[in-house]
Amino acid sequence: MSNVKKQATKMVAVPSHSIVPERDVDSRPVLETRHLGIEFGGLKAVDDFNLTIGRTEIAGLIGPNGAGKTTVFNLLTKVYQPTTGTVLVNGRDTAGMNIVQANKLGLARTFQNIRLFGNMTVEDNVRIGLHNQIKYDTVSGIFRLPHFWQGEKKQHEKTMELLSIFNMQDMADAKAGSLPYGAQRRLEIVRALATNPSLLLLDEPAAGMNPHETAELMENIVRIRDQFQIAVLLIEHDMNLVMGICEGICVLNFGKVIAKGTPEEIQRNPVVIEAYLGKQKEADK
To answer: What digits encode the pLDDT tens for the residues 96-130?
Structure first.
């Protein structure tokens, strides 16, 4: 069982007809989407998606399989360009941006299918995420001048600090592909954190984890939010995890938002229950 003790969070309305944690009301939302949508061959995969996430909110995006959740993540991170609508990150419109530009603006993500460099070490995988933070010029790199070694030292120290979040510093020299599945999941989160995001997008972070690993993950997501003062948006099918740590939840079905609210509101929402369980047969009534 998880030791996470979820503190009661008061969610309050904001002008965009959404709710955010009370502590974030006076801060600009980290993410706002307005009428976001995308079509593939005339089929609306996501339609009129509106969401606001507070500066330090842990939010959930849930829905049945095929609801469009990962498509939303791809729209937010510019893997896909939207057909309609707007995405604002820290108040800036991301229209026309590519994946790298969106990352520099503050968006970092993990994937349903782990995307690590398996033949590289754990440390090198994390250092890739640090590439745009610690710099030295070409001359220093070629001739190994003091400035180069100072940069290398800073990168190593920062990498070990990030790995320590999941107690993985002793694995720094191991090949990423040799790690157990759960450790690879954690490494992908660490690499995303290395890019210094303001919003961390986690696509099914507990997939393939056992109950003990999931409980640890819950604790670490909360710790990451508190330590880095960032927001987290996660897609997850493990409802114990979602209800245990998320403050605001958005429910998607067939590409459209069918409900938004606190965990308590979502759990008793009849539209959400129907989307997951289907309508009861007359004989069951």
So the answer is: 999 999 999 999 999 888 889 999 999 999 998 88
Residue 136: what pLDDT? 54
Q: Report CA-CA distances (Å) from 8 to 22, 245, 258, 262.
A: 11, 10, 24, 11
Cβ neighbours of residue 161 closer than 8 Å, sequence gap 6 or more:
none
Amino acid at the residue 66: G
Q: Closest Cα to residue 62, out of 270, 213, 207, 246?
A: 246
What is the C-alpha to C-alpha distance for residues 280 and 219, in angstroms, rounded to an integer? Answer: 36
Residues, the chain? 285
pLDDT band at 4 (very low <50, low <70, confident <90, very high): low
Q: Where are the alpha helices (DSSP H) in the chain?
A: 69-76, 99-105, 122-129, 138-143, 146-163, 181-194, 211-228, 239-245, 263-267, 270-277
Q: Which two tokens stand for residue 249?
A: 């939840």
CA-nearest of 155, 160, 137 to 147 is 137
Contact between 60 and 248 (Cβ < 8 Å): yes
Write the DSSP assignment of 5-41 as a string of letters.
-PPP--EEEETTTEEEEGGGTTS--SEEEEEEEEEET
Residues 6+ apart with CB under 8 A from 253: 63, 64, 67, 275
Tracing tokens 């995405």 back to the chain, one arrives at 87
Q: Burial letters for 156-172: b for 16+ Cβ neighbours within 10 Å, e otherwise?
A: eebbeebbebbebeebb
